[in-house]
Amino acid sequence: MPLARLAALHGVATSYSPSPGRTVQAPDSAVVATLAALGVDASTPEAIGHALEVREAEIRERLLPPTVVGRPGSEPAALADLPPGTSLHIETEQGETRASALGLPPGVHALHATAPDGRTARAHLVVAPEHVPGPSGRTYGLLVQLYSLLSERSWGMGDLGDLTELAAWAGRSLGVGFVQVNPLHAAVPGAPTDPSPYRPSSRRFPDPVHLRVEDIPEYAYLAGPDREKAQGVLGRAAALRASVLDKGALIDRDAVWALKREALELVRNVPLGPGRRSAYQDFLAAEGQALQDHATWYALAEVHGPDWHTWPEGLKDPRSAETARAREELRERVDFHTLLAWLTDAQLATAQRTAHDAGMPIGLVHDLAVGVHPGGADAWALQDHLAAGMTVGAPPDAFNARGQDWGLPPWRPDRLAASGYAPYRDLLRALFRHAGALRIDHVMGLFRLWWIPQGQPPTEGTYVRYDAEAMLAVLALEADRAGALVIGEDLGTVEPGVRETLHERGILGTSVLWFERDWDGTGLPLPPEEWRADCLATATTHDLPSTASRLTGDHVELRAELGLLTRPVDEERAEAATDVGEWLALLARLGLLPDGPVDEEEQIRAVHRFLLRTPARMIGLWLPDTVGDRRPQNLPGTWDQYPNWRLPIADAEGRPVTLEQLAASPRLHALIDVLRA
C-alpha cells in the first residue's frame, strides 16, 4: 500500500500493538496529518505517489544520512555503505582534521564525504561513549517536589534556598546520596499560571520563581527607599508563607512570583561588582542566542501575552526584522530576564556544590519533562524543530480507554537529525550542568512518541519513530561530559526491546514497589531478589498515592469522593485491600514486619526494608512518606477537582510540615534509620 510505504520511509507508523497479540490500525487521516507535519503531502493518491518517488530517490542517491553515530575505537556503521574509494574529511569538535573515522575523540564532528563519481555529502558525526556513567556504589536519596518543601524562610513555596539547606542537612546528618526534584523549568507567565512543572514554557532555562531573593549578593546592598520597599515585600512574603503553613491555604505560585518580581526589580538596580559583572558576561556569552531568544520571549510576553500565536504577525518569527527591532525597544526588559536566568543558574550551582560538600556522591537529580507548552518560549524559539499542528500523548490502553493528550508539541525527527540534534544537545547540557543525575520523564519518547493532530482525540493519532541510536548517543555524550547518571522513567506500557536497549547503554530504570509483580506468572508481588539491579527503586512517585494512603486505603476514598471511580467503590476497596494484603504478607514472610499487631509507621518502614533487600542501585524515599502525608501531589485525571501541584508537605492529619520540623521529626529519623542500616 503506497501510503503505508511512504509512512514507513518517514518513520510514521500505520499500526501499533497496545498489548501482546493485538494490533490496532492507525487511522489514515492521522497518518496523512502526521506526514503533513513532517512536510510531506499525502493528501491524494497522486501526491502520495510523487512523495514516494522523491523519498525513495533521496534515500537511494544520498551518500550519508544527516547525522551519523559512532563510538570511540570503531568506525560508524553508516560509513561501511559508502562506495569504495570514497574519501573522508573530518573536522573534529576539538579543532583537528582527520581523514579517517577511526580513533576519533567523543564529540560532534563535521564529516565530509566525496565519492569517486563526484557525489559529496556533509553530515554531523556524533561519537559517544557506549554507556552513560553509572553509580559508584549503592546509595539512597530523597524525592521531593521542591515547591512543596517550605521552610520558615520560604516566600510561600519551596525555593532554591530550601533545596540548598535540605542538601546540606540530608547529606551531613542523614547520609543521603542524592536529592531528586521536580522539573525546575521556566513556567508560562500569567495568572493563573499552570502549576504543573511538566508543561513549561522552557526546558532550557530554570524558573526564577525558585530564587531565594535574600541570597542574591546584591540584595544586601539595597539602601534608602529601595531597602524600605524590600522590607515591605518581606513582610508580605511572611504573611503568604503563614497562610500556607498556618491557615490551610494552597501554594499560590502567582502570588509568590508577584512578590519576588517586585523584589528583583529592586535588586537589579544594585550595580554588580567587577567579579560578578565578569561572571554575568561569561554566562551571556556561553548561553548565546538561546538566552537572548528566551529573554526576548518573556519581554514580548509582558506586552503581548503569553501565547506567541496571538502576537502581531512579524513577532511570531524569532528571526524577523520586527522581532529584532522589538528586542532593542525592549532591551531593558530583555536584560532583566537574562539577569534572572543567571541568578537562578548561580543558585542551582550553589545547591549542587553544597550537596557535594555535604558528602553526597550524586547530589541533585534534575527532572526533564517530555515537552513544552505550545505557546511558550521554547516553542517560539525552536519552532523549526517542532511539529506544528501536532501534540504528544498516549494511545488508548488498558488503563485509559480514551488515550491521553498532553498538549505538548513533539520534536521533528527530521529536523533534529539535520541539525546534528543541536537543540537537544543544548538542552541536555544545560540540565546536566548542575546535576549529578538526570531523570527523563517518559524515557520511551527517545524511541517513539504518539502524535495527535491538534483538535482530534487521542484515539486519532499514531506513533512517530525517532532515531533512538542518535538520541541515546547524544544523551551518553552529554552525560559523560558531566559525569552524571541518567534515570529513565519507564513505567507503564513499554515497547519490546526498549528496556533492554536502555540497560545496554547504562540508563537506570524506575521500579515502583506496587507495580512490581510477576505479571507473566502468578501475578503476586515480585520477591526482592527478582528485581532488576539497574534502577531507582521507590515506594511511590508524585503521580501516585503516598505509602500511608496506599496502606490505609485513603486513596480509594479520595477518588470516590471526587467521582473518579469507574467501578463500584466496594470493588475498588476490595481490590486495594487485596493488593496491600499480598504485599504485607510477603513482608511478613521475609521477616521485615515484627510479630503481632503493627501500626502504619512500622508498615512503611517494612516497605523500605524490602526495597533494601532488592539489588536496586538507587533507593528513593518520597519525602512526604517520612511524616505520613496522605495526599498525592498530583492526581492524574483531575484539573480543578483537586489542588494538583499546590500542596505543601504535611503530616498524617494534613498539617503542613516545614523543613525545620522535618529535621526534628522522630518519625522521619526512624524511617531514615532503616535506610542507613
TrEMBL record:
InterPro entries: GH, Glyco_hydro_77. Signal peptide: none annotated. Its EC number is 2.4.1.25. It is an enzyme of class 2 (transferase). This is 4-alpha-glucanotransferase. Pfam families: Glyco_hydro_77 (PF02446). GO terms for molecular function: 4-alpha-glucanotransferase activity. The lineage of its organism: Bacteria, Bacillati, Actinomycetota, Actinomycetes, Kitasatosporales. The gene is malQ. It catalyses: Transfers a segment of a (1->4)-alpha-D-glucan to a new position in an acceptor, which may be glucose or a (1->4)-alpha-D-glucan. Keywords: Carbohydrate metabolism, Glycosyltransferase, Transferase. Belongs to the disproportionating enzyme family. One of its GO terms (biological process) is carbohydrate metabolic process.
